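Handout, section B. The chain below has 244 residues.
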Amino acid sequence: MGDNKLSIKLDERTVQGKKVKALRMQGLVPGVVYGHGVDPMNIQLEAGEMKKLYAKAGTYTPVHLDIAGKKKIAMIKDVDYNPVRGTIRHVSFHAIKMSDPVIAEVPVRLVGEGESEAEKNGLIILQNLEHIEVKALPLDLPEAVEVDIRGLKEAGDKVTLGDAKLPAGVEFVEHESGHGDEDEEKPRVADLQVASVWEPAALEAANAAAAGTAEDESEVEAENGSEEEAANAPEGEKTEEKPE
């Protein structure tokens, strides 16, 4: 992780429920702090400051919080965006203990882009995995998991997470399958494909085929949705709001 200490001041929030809309109109982001040594606490902060903090910290860098004089160390756990405006609607901070390992999602970064024999020969390297969960002490969490692609040469070549060099004290998080299918062995995280080499024409054809499949599925979902709405629609339309 970076050497710069990240810190921010938060204000305690008394407004809850639908009334937080007024906060957002004032340029404030509502949120909550919970976790180690903290009773869940409603907070608020300036939207611009939150945007800058998230750009620097992501979900993998400890942040020093000052909440009305109360000092806590936390990590950004969840950020909810307005899908239309792209603004931050709500943020959750998870308080941590620096001596306890934590799980965080970090970016996967390709090393040596433009330097491989494959790229020099006009082939395309497609990144298949953008983020991965790792476990480490808070101060040992990396800014990214790096995978070297300079050894890729021909179409069909690939690199996996097993090719990554993790820093000391950092490990991938394995997830057990939740389907209960004993005959199907879940692949190890290290076997997950990070990037692969494609012929330009083959990649274009694959993208075209994927786009066609997506359009077909959208049409079927739209038709099914219309039928279900016609059959089950109540007198008034119901909407579901995210709890604050």
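Note. Confidence is low (pLDDT under 50) at residues 226-243. Compare this with the example in section A.
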